[in-house]
Amino acid sequence: MNEESAQERVNLYVYFRIRADVSSGTARSRILAMQQALAGRSGVQGRLMRRREEGGTWMEVYEAVPNPAVFEAELQAAVAESGLLDLIEPGSARHVERFVECA
């Protein structure tokens, strides 16, 4: 790994489908609480979005993550601790996409 790639900051986009029987208010409050706890632990503040056309698909956005491997482990722990997997549509999963700035 060269010096430049070691300094590269990654943006994480985590998308998933919320169960149909979970209200948007419940999902929103639980996810935001998890993100707040994660920010306290990692220093990375997340954003929460949902698909405009179809409200069951949601996305967490974490930008400029300085140490992606450590952050992803912290994110996974925060999700497990908060019980967010109970909100996910059966047969679905949380999908993580990683993007970097174009040089």
Brief descriptors of the model:
single chain, 103 residues, alpha+beta, Alpha-Beta Plaits, four-stranded antiparallel β-sheet, globular
Report on this structure.
- A four-stranded antiparallel beta sheet has the order 2-3-1-4, with helices on one face.
- The chain contains three helices and four strands.
- Helix 2 crosses helix 3 (68-82).
- By secondary structure, it is of the alpha+beta class.
- The protein has one domain: Alpha-Beta Plaits.
- The chain has helices at residues 3-7, 24-42, 68-82; strands spanning 10-17, 46-50, 57-65, 95-99.
- The two termini are 17 Å apart.
- Helix content is 38%, strand content 26%.
- The mean pLDDT is 92.
How would you summarize this macromolecular structure in one to three sentences?
Helix content is 38%, strand content 26%. With 103 residues, it is an alpha+beta fold. It has a single domain (9-99), classed as Alpha-Beta Plaits (2-Layer Sandwich), CATH 3.30.70.
